[in-house]
Amino acid sequence: MTxxxxxxxxxxxxxxxxxxxxxxxxxxxxxxxxxxxxxxxADRVIDASQKYVIxxxxxxxxxxxxPFGGTFASDTFETGTRAAAWxxxxxxxxxxxxxxxxxxxxxxxxxxxxxxxxxxVDYAFHMIMSDVNESTLREMxxxxxxxxxxxxLFMAYPGVFYSDDGQILRAMQVAGDTGGLIMMHAENxxxxxxxxxxxxxxxxxxxxxxxxxRKALLEAEATHRAIQLARVAGSxxxxxxxSAQEAVAELAAARDMGLPVFGETCPQYLFLSTDNLAEPxxxxxxxxxxxxxxxxxxxxxxxxxxxxxxxxxxxxxxxxFCFVGQKELGRGDFxxxxxxxxxxxxxxxxxxxxxxxxxxxRRRWIEIACATPARMFGxxxxxxxxxxxxxxxxxxxxxxxxxxxxxxxxxxxxxxxxYEGRTITGQVETVLSRGELVVDQRKYxxxxxxxxFVPRGLCQYLG
Length: 463
Hints:
Layout: E1 4-12, E2 17-25, E3 28-33, E4 44-47, E5 52-55, E6 57-62, E7 67-68, E8 71-72, H1 77-86, E9 89-97, H2 104-115, E10 122-128, H3 134-145, E11 150-154, H4 165-178, E12 181-185, H5 189-201, H6 208-213, H7 216-233, E13 237-239, H8 245-256, E14 261-265, H9 267-271, H10 274-277, H11 299-308, E15 313-314, H12 347-356, H13 362-376, E16 394-404, E17 423-433, E18 436-440, E19 443-444
Parallel strand pairs: 1-4, 1-5, 6-9, 9-10, 10-11, 11-12, 12-13, 13-14, 14-15
Antiparallel strand pairs: 1-2, 2-3, 5-16, 7-8, 16-17, 17-18, 18-19
Organism: Streptomyces omiyaensis
Family: Belongs to the metallo-dependent hydrolases superfamily. Hydantoinase/dihydropyrimidinase family.
Pfam family, one: Amidohydro_1
């Protein structure tokens, strides 16, 4: 095992910024010391002068190989985790999916098989419950014991993933008893389906209507309802991909009451808007995701929520579908456009741009992208920080480099970039995963099979 020394960089964690040398051995961080104060011998020395030394990113919301709308997400675990590494993310938490009438364990085993031997960086799983019943409720504690300690439920997608309020309440009660965390897709899918039907009947078929029917008030209503059900159940709640200022207000009100309620947003809601959904010639289909993109005025409340900690995590909801042949399934009917977009490679860079633009501090960047997702999902301090004993998931980040985001140069297996042509200040230079070089001076040196499954503990913000 190679002994690695990183010298001369500014080490940034959620807690601290300090110039330090970092010693790595046996896949872990061994020690930090003031620059030049220790005569450490090493097989490999990485000069990080004028650079940041940051923890590898933890993307707690990805969907590799997800079946959706008659097709599959275009990134496999191999291509998706390679792209994650290029973007400075060294751990993903993906979603195993329970098929209707199947046990939870069957879904988990299927996703474990997809990932096994194929990942360039480490991975863990949440469990999507698409059929809440007495049998699957009994399985929940067993999955927690296996290190799959969070369960996603949907108030949207009737007939596919949807759970009614009674099912949600029951799952929350089990989670409250076992220490599991319920993750909620909070949109009123029953009402949205009515609005979809009415829009299509009026001949409103273009991608922009996807955003118009999935109304912000129906996200806020579902968020409010999920919070109240969690209160009744005595359960914590994590609301995924929050996009609307009205939903942020519901989370803020709950947190002001001291409730264990948490919220996640995604780069697309911070940097894109309904202007993208309205792009002509069906180009808007590239930006169809759920929850949908909102008008630009929602961005400022999202940034404010990240600063005030009413939102705690930025994940990607990475679930790419190619424009040609996949997004095009919805030509003439926006409701048939596969939902979601690519982003696992762009998250760390976009959030550094937010530092440059003054939205957040450097430490908050690391907090929302590395440390908090690791704590939220029982991975800290193994992941999400640079400290003695932590996994040596370390990124050398050049804050002065500039790059132009483009499908021509990205490594995600998808034929467009949601951020095409956007100039970003800052770029990942070198990435270590458990001490192994995965990206070395902008050259990919990783390989499928290096990434390992990481069993997770319980949410560290509870109890």
